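User: Structure with 2P0, tokens only please.
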Amino acid sequence: MKPKIMQATAVAHPNIALVKYWGKRDVERNIPAVGSLSITLDGLTTTTTVRFDPEFEHDVFLLGGCEAPKMAQRVVGCLDRMRRRAGVSMHAVVESENDFPTAAGLASSASGFAALVIAADAALGAGFDRSELADLARQASGSAARSLFGGFVELRLTPDGPYPTETRQLLEPRAWPLRILVAVTDPGPKAVGSTEGMLMTELTSPYYREWVESSPADLLEARSAVERRDFEALADVSELSCLKMHAVMLSARPGLVYWNGTTVECIRRVRELRADGVAVFFTVDAGPQVKAVCLPEVYERVERDLAVLPGVTSVVESGLGGGARVVEDRR
Ligand code: 2P0
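Assistant:
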């Protein structure tokens, strides 16, 4: 008798860190050097289907219908850890689609691995709890654990806990419905991947230690701002964390410059708006896009102002979204 179909589909959204993760405490186990605080988006989605079958001879990974060998290695690594914990040996076909540009600083690995662990867990019927799923996602990609949860999310280092990090939701999306505008300045893939960039920074930047040591205070400040829903306080600490991260990247050897000229123009415009009393702040990740985070009542104004800047190719709008979830389970 042919065994049951072991297939499930999950969706996950990218997240944007307001207090940034950059650097690894343990490269082998992919433990971040610093905690982070993020918001999960709803306007951008990764959809991933995982199908296990005892007849498959190896794993297959397709991203947007095409083979993606570099990412496939990380997908297989993640599946291997899940199979080990679940005590199964079957191979899988994984098909993943993003409705936004991949590898352009829009955290596609975060939503990708969050969707993967949720879909694989459902397909296997493994029943891992959220903490274990977050641990599996984090091992695949540090930022992926945050996309398991919706709204405002914190990833803390917990060296004495059952897992080396713990990820939890601080606020639901509805509790403080901020809006995000992603000013796309270059939709192409980034020059230096995050993992490589982090290692280079740690090995060569004279400021790396200060970056790591100053992070807990930023995290505390941001957590408190979120709990109080204090926009100005969150804006201050978010811009600080972003610029500090880019400062430490720039001070690597060779320096990591993820920005282009338009990135700088977008930052300037957001700062001018904020100085004029518009409730908006910026953040930039390992790529040239600028994310403007604002209160709902000002987003049209911010969108207009960013869209007209020369070099901005599009502005993607998003609210806050929910965590990764199963949308179809065909076991
Ligand atoms: C973040 N980034 O906190 C920071 C800000 C990019 C800049 O997390 O090596 O792809 O797979 O654990 O999760 C991107 O890093 O890195 C990232 P790995 P990941 O969002």
